[in-house]
Design goal:
heterodimer, A: about 350 residues, alpha/beta, 10-stranded mixed β-sheet, B: about 270 residues, 12 helices
């Protein structure tokens, strides 16, 4: 276990506890501190989940925005023994780091999913999946050659047939699978191929082909859709949830589900959390309440796995969700564990490759 | 009473700095693993060199642009000086991120420059300006220029203009008076500004990330990537590399400027 920087971590934790303490002078019997993304996600979950939960169970709920360096903050709290969060939203890549660094406690599924209605893929030992999102190829349909549609990674690589500026994420874990798909590797063999040295070489040499045509390697989801909106880029990867906002602003963009990467994000309970029972109640609501999930994904199109969710979703909208059966069929499940184990090594090669 | 200040300084600056230094070689036992990793592959030193190069170019260009501006302001009547300084301060109050986004709007494929030039018929197709190293230089200089101007200006206000007049009375031409009297006296402020700009540039990462091309990676970007994965030890080692090389270059700039001052002040006509 790497335990560097304990001093800084403690200092961070102390500062954060001061902040929370100030906003917390009035204490009730039951408490819950929920950490997660800010902005529209925060407002939506406040309205749909937190406010009703607070009333029904008489819990005093505090919401903390934790976006950048979320895992660093979590590590700071767990290592210093002063855990302020009772639940934390974990992105797909946060989850295995949390497990590896021993920052999370086991989920009690007797409380979260007593009826055992959640699919196995969403019931993880240290976190329950509350939503799914996809990284997909997005196309400016007005910039396509007449009558043609771009429908696969091989098409993205085909710069002769589909000319125009392209963008990909600047991180290796967002690209290597796509390169292999473009090179003809089937969906279910991706990580098998990627685990070998030859497979890695294969991915990089496929990326060599597209590299001169990548105008910009984007660094945030917001940037990727901005590029598409501004017309800087005609074809780019991005998160499915960001596409509808672009479309609503009148810009014709289409999602290519074929070859998309499906990620799950989780709700976790930090080791040493103070209100474990309340945290489980909240996790139960988030993961299994289909009606609320239906309301939630009207605003934020990242659906979870609550049983009966389809009853609460407009069939037309369902088609554009990552968990629609047709979409699930053509995507692959991103293997976060692979990346936690291999990212350091691959990232060095990636950065060198990028600078060549 | 200097103690409260010293305690604060120790707690919030010195102790964390020592801790970062410690984290780079103890993880948790003494290890040279991180240092070996930095020198084991070219990538880290390549990016370090790029970072230094960008910072040097930005600080030199800032100095060259800021000097005449500061001189111009210092020569105005008092009232006007404040008005000009205010104009220079305004962009400084704006968030760096916002200013960077503003550059994206200006330099973009469908941005102001490209669309104006197309409308005027100067070019047929958009020129790629955004996502190039040039865009990094332009926006970093714009962001850091006010700091250089203000530092330069405050140094120039200290100069006794009677000295320049005296030089003229003693027979120096205007150019000679400027070069042998005013320039050496104002050089110190310029160098101080350059050093501040250089140090700030070394730590830049938002701007190169947003307007730069694929190869415009700075060392700070690498630190951020490591922190993201909770690799504190390696992040600390890169930070130390950045710190020591910044210090080294600041010392080099300092001694070069001393030589230059001597040369300008004492050199032949």
């Amino acid at each position: 276990m790497k335990q560097a920087n304990v001093y800084i971590l403690r200092l961070l934790a102390a500062l954060m506890s001061m902040v929370i303490f100030i906003g917390h002078a009035n204490t009730q019997s039951r408490e819950l501190v929920v950490a997660g993304a800010g902005g529209v996600v925060a407002n939506t979950s406040q309205q749909i989940y937190l406010d009703p939960l607070s009333l029904d169970h008489d819990i005093n709920i505090t919401r903390v925005s934790a976006e950048a360096r979320r895992m660093a903050q979590l590590e700071a709290m767990v290592r210093s023994g002063n855990v302020l969060w009772d639940t934390v939203e974990l992105s797909a890549s946060d989850y295995p780091i949390g497990v590896k660094k021993d920052l999370l406690q086991r989920i009690d599924y007797n409380i979260v999913d007593p009826m055992q209605l959640l699919p196995a893929l969403s019931r993880r030992e240290f976190g329950v999946a509350v939503s799914a999102y996809s990284r997909v190829l997005v196309v400016r349909s007005d910039k396509l050659p007449d009558g043609d549609t771009l429908s696969s990674w091989a098409d993205f690589w085909n710069v002769g047939k589909f000319p125009g500026p392209r963008s990909l994420s600047g991180r290796p874990e967002d690209n290597l699978e796509f390169a292999l798909l473009a090179d003809g590797v089937p969906l279910d063999k991706l990580y098998e191929v990627l685990s070998t040295e030859e497979g890695l070489d294969r991915a990089f040499s496929k990326l060599d082909e597209i590299k001169p045509h990548i105008t910009v390697w984007w660094r945030s989801g917001a940037q990727s859709v901005q590029l598409l909106s501004d017309g800087e880029i005609y074809f780019s990867t991005t998160f499915n949830g960001r596409v509808s906002a672009v479309r609503e602003s009148g810009i014709p963009v289409e999602i290519v589900w074929n070859g998309g990467a499906l990620h799950l994000s989780f709700l976790g309970i930090p080791k040493g959390a103070k209100n474990v029972e309340e945290a489980h109640i909240y996790a139960h609501e988030r993961a299994t309440n289909a009606e609320k999930m239906g309301q939630y994904i009207k605003v934020i199109p990242y659906p979870g796995f609550a049983a009966g969710l389809t009853d609460y979703v407009d069939p037309e909208e369902f088609v554009s969700l990552p968990t629609h059966p047709d979409n699930l069929l053509v995507q692959f499940s991103a293997n976060e564990e692979f990346w936690v184990d291999n990212l350091e090594k691959i990232e060095e090669r990636w950065n060198e490759w990028l600078l060549q | 009473m200097i103690w409260p200040a010293l305690i604060l300084l120790f707690m919030f600056i010195l102790a964390p700095a020592i801790e970062i230094f410690r984290a780079s070689i103890f993880d948790p036992e003494f290890t040279t693993e991180h240092i070996n990793r930095i020198f084991g592959r070219d990538i880290y030193l390549t990016i370090l060199w790029r970072t230094i190069k960008v910072s040097l170019v930005v600080s030199v260009l800032c100095a060259v642009i800021a000097y005449p501006v500061a001189y111009f302001i210092v020569k105005r009547p008092r009232q006007q000086q404040f008005a000009f300084l205010f104009l220079i301060f305004v962009p400084m109050w704006m968030n760096i991120l916002i200013r960077t986004y503003a550059w994206m709007v200006v330099l973009g494929r469908e941005g102001i420059i490209n669309s104006t030039m197309i409308a005027l018929g100067l070019i047929d197709e958009s020129i790629q300006m955004l996502f190039t190293s040039g865009a990094v230089y332009v926006s970093m200089i714009q962001i850091l220029l006010p700091i250089q101007i203000v530092t330069c200006y405050s140094a120039m206000t200290e100069i006794d203009f009677d000295l320049v007049r005296a030089a003229r009375i003693l027979g120096a031409s205007p150019a000679q008076a400027l070069r042998r009297v005013f320039l050496p006296l104002s050089l110190d402020g310029t160098i101080t500004g350059m050093i501040i700009v250089f140090m700030l540039s070394m730590g830049f990462f938002i701007t190169p990330a947003l307007v730069g091309g694929p190869t415009d990676l700075m060392l700070a970007n690498l630190i951020e990537m490591q922190v993201e994965q909770l690799n504190w030890g390696f992040a600390a080692t890169i930070a130390i590399l950045l710190f020591t090389s910044t210090l080294l270059f600041v010392l080099v700039i300092r001694s070069l400027s001393k030589m230059l001052t001597k040369f300008l002040g004492g050199g032949n006509l």
